[in-house]
């Protein structure tokens, strides 16, 4: 689970070879970024601070959500009921000064309930398109796996191309555009398996786990002291659409060594050759890993990507894009186990 991972950045200071004469040994040169990331860092810290007003713990989850926002990707949150998946998504949306909408997926939901529909106007003697809730910058979809395939397919175009085609006319969704979807991995009654093509459109799949004992005690203490409920008003917007556009442009300019591009290709390519998998990841996964690593490096104050950034994001990027063979599933293996094996098999560039 992500919140069990160490979100700390790798060591940036080079290790110097000891000199025979201590006087001649130079002091380590401080790391100097070639790009000024202070503006990005201040906004990221402000968002973390706003989320921390309500959410206890989940620092790694917050970092990965911020990474997805900067990488311009969608996120699928998976976890049992009651671990604040929906609350976290709503709070994150409140930190951004952009339009927000929420959809509760149910088995009887139709595509027009998501995308919108054409309404006939008698006074104009013509049809007028009435936009659906998908036309927002942050779209929260609760229990996304409760809608049938017909409704799920309505999301394919808008998640990838950021547009909706209705009656031969294309309508563009607002910029930025991000889908935050939640699902319960345990309950199967009344749910539908998400198509692989739709899963592939999510940048990350994040597992939201239980809090630690200390964090749960803090939750209880806060609730007992009168901080219960969902005080969304406590969270304020700290980032505008224009700010986010500028930060994303800065992330795109992050430096990536050619050997790291090869490393990403080898990691993703190995999923297609692994004996424990019958479905490997597509080139879209390689792009997701690259964009995510750029954003994560920027959040951690670096203008360059390291192998550790790629390794840290390998599971969130790949776990929903690969399928285990029945034999491996019966043995109790998970997608994360396979990703870990692949990372251990491939030589890390230095």
UniProtKB/TrEMBL annotation:
The keyword Ligase does not apply. Pfam families: AAA_3, AAA_lid_2. It comes from the Bacteria. Residues 71-212 form the AAA+ ATPase domain. Keywords: ATP-binding, Nucleotide-binding. One of its GO terms (molecular function) is ATP binding. InterPro entries: AAA+_ATPase (IPR003593), ATPase_AAA-3 (IPR011703), CbbQ/NirQ/NorQ/GpvN (IPR050764), ChlI/MoxR_AAA_lid (IPR041628), P-loop_NTPase (IPR027417). Residues 1-27 are annotated as: Disordered. PANTHER family: MAGNESIUM-CHELATASE SUBUNIT CHLD (PTHR42759:SF1), MOXR FAMILY PROTEIN (PTHR42759). Belongs to the MoxR family. This is MoxR-like ATPase. It comes from Hymenobacter psychrotolerans DSM 18569. The lineage of its organism: Bacteria, Pseudomonadati, Bacteroidota, Cytophagia, Cytophagales.
